Amino acid sequence: MIPDRIEREIRIAASIERVWTALTEAKHLGTWFGDAGATIDLRPGGAITLTWEKNGTARGRVERVEPPTVFSFRWIRGDHEEPEPGNHTLVEFTLTPDGSGTVLRMVESGIRGLEMAEAGLREYARGHEHGWTSELGELRAYVEGRDE
Amino acid sequence: MTPRLRPGGQRAPDDAIVAMADPTRWRLLNLMAAHGEETATTLAAQLPVSRPAVAKHLSILSRAGLVSGHRSGREVRYHVRPERLEEAAQWISRLASEWDTRLAAIKRIAESLEDS
Hints:
The complex is a heterodimer of chains A (148) and B (116).
Chain A: E1 5-12, H1 16-24, H2 26-32, E2 38-40, E3 47-52, E4 56-66, E5 70-76, E6 88-98, E7 101-109, H3 111-129, H4 132-144
Antiparallel strand pairs in A: 1-7, 2-3, 3-4, 4-5, 5-6, 6-7
Chain B: H1 13-20, H2 23-35, H3 40-46, H4 51-63, E1 67-72, E2 75-80, H5 82-115
């Protein structure tokens, strides 16, 4: 099965406040996520824009902001402006102090829904409109043999 | 009638991922992978799914390029095309490795902030 989530954990030799800053400040977000800048309105419901030199701009919507331990946002794919079912994933960061450093945990979830929506449902919908049924019937006849 | 079991052609891996995301199709793929070749009849006998339903799932897998079929007597025998499975697996691991890159960048930024 296609995994619905990606989970990653990394230890960083920096205080939790520094990691929080690297994660959430626009000038840093624009280098580790996009490569040509970012904007962020750091409050629940706030807008995020992520810009790539080659791929244009993607949008996000801040979900949780609990400094310095929890930051999450909905990453909207394609040209959509607002998160709707099937057009985004949820990216969640959890920060935990670990001695003089910080453990940063990332979970991106909703991947299966995203792919189903973007790739599949469009294809299925088009199929339904343009004779998916007859095409299926044709294939079934082929599969089952003409003499059945 | 022209069979629609196109053996080649360029398709986005998206098709394969969508095709595999369905639990029944995933089981069909596993049965074909385990046994080499199967027909709609032999597959339907191994699952609580009707033969027409199996045929429909096979058509989706075939359109996604994940299986190929060839006629053998009155039946069509299907086998898995591993190269397409591999492509889909690579897509997933690419998503995951993009996160490795991003997290490494966050680490670099945070650790250089500490030094400044």
